[in-house]
Amino acid sequence: MQRNVLEYLEATAPRLPDKVAFSDGAASLTFGQLFRAARGIGTLLAQKGHSREPVAVFMPRCPDTVAAFFGVAYSGCFYVPIDSEMPQYRIELILQTLRPRAVLCGGGTRPAAEQLGTDAVLYDFDEAARTAPDDALLSSIRAGQLDTDPLYVVFTSGSTGVPKGVVACHRSVIDYIEQLSAALGFSEDTVFGSQTPLYFDACLKELYPTLKFGATTYLIPRSLFLSPVRLVDYLNEHRINTVCWVASALTMISGLKVLDKKIPEYLHTVAFGSEVFPIRQFKRWRAALPGARFTNLYGPTECTGMSCFYHVDRDFEDDESIPIGRPFPNTGILLLTQDDREAAPGQVGEICIRGTCVTMGYYRMPEKTAECFVQNPLNDAYPELIYRTGDLGRYNDRGELVFVSRKDYQIKHMGHRIELQEIEAAVAAHPQAAAVCAVYHKEKDRIVLYYTGEAQPGELTAFLREKLPRYMIPNRTERLERMPLTPNGKIDRKLLAARASGAEQEKG
Amino acid sequence: MEELLAILNEMHPEVDFEIADNLIDGKILDSIDIVSLVGELSDTFSIEIPAEEIVPENFNSAQALWDMICRLDEA
Questions:
Q1: Does domain B2-74 have CATH number 1.10.1200.10?
Q2: What is the CATH number of the domain that holds A337?
Q3: Do B51 and A229 touch (CB under 8 A)?
């Protein structure tokens, strides 16, 4: 039985040593190079005394970063990708929770790492990757590892203003990759075009199947997502046949009418998820690629990548939503009503998940963990943890699960999961902002910020840019004389949400 | 040009669009901005922006955007 994700690499590297595993156009790594670099990094970290602890990987999006992840895994530690473009303030918040003893730098991030308020030892990727692998040391580390040991921590938006780190173990990732690969039919011939950043669990979809099958992943440069025609050219140039993208990236291509002129001609597998795919845009894709298989994926970071899938097998009306289908075979879904009973067919309930996909919780946040990772209320026979997603869903007449909405103020914007309260917490730190409310305009995929106080909108946005990642910056900022309140004195979010969409309509 | 600046300022009040010339390279505009800009410019200036025009060179500054609008308007 496979117990460690590195077994994928160890089976593939001797078989396909010279095949390109990861490429970003500028640099690439073959399976042989990847194997060598990862074992070097693992050896160095272990020789320096790091063991069973978080190692922050503070590197840009490139093949070396992927090697760094596997290198950390070789050392018996777990990797924590840190977005090197995130504002320093937010990186420091994450490091305060993480308290790492080791940070792996590379691709020019060392000067920025030295500015961070951390007493961790900084290691340089190139030097670490060149370390001669110590086979005996790596073997003894492996012998002591279990599949329940952590593999990574990824940080996601937190409603209190502090990002939360989700900890996932080898078992969860192996089970996920096996089930996802079977559902989507990955193989050695798969050529992935990866759109996702490496600091989210979304990238598991490409990284580990690439190792498992000896496939190839192109890390598509971010800038191409601003030039849709060039993006399609890139897909064709590299014969990319499989994409697992957020719906907004696919919508950008179809919405700007690129598919009328050229299509990604090798694409046969299109998986999407993380947000609702507007049917009008989806239809354009399906019409442009009639031979391709389209699959909707759904799942929270807390349950290791994706939990449910639906292969599109019919047409949809513009006002319908594409179902999220059914769970992977070794994943269980419960739909719970407010009083913790099982929802009746058609009734809305909170989507709760059980199985080996359920992660270990939030790093150094036991209270937060206890709130969402709870005993299955339908099971009083034995201890069984489930994860309460906060997503509301229902089963349609066909027995397919459909996403309805959120229980709280979490949104999906450009594929990123954002707690609106985290934006509000950042605004509240500005000395000249008083009341604040962030709302989400779903149709336009825009975050609109309303606030009162002396601060000017431009000042406030510049302030936020130093605190929040790019995708959390409001798309519109409006100063109000007075914050509208509900009869019981709370900020009237509904009225502001209506204002955000109404303002658009007036302008036409 | 003033109408264009008004549209841009509403999107990003923190940016001085009269001098900024790295809207794409400086990661000020993201893909959502571009999609909504294309919609707003098409409506406001009654032009059609073909997909091939949606490249960083045309979106890096207000002036580049304006040049594109004028070019498409003449066409």
A1: yes
A2: 2.30.38.10
A3: yes
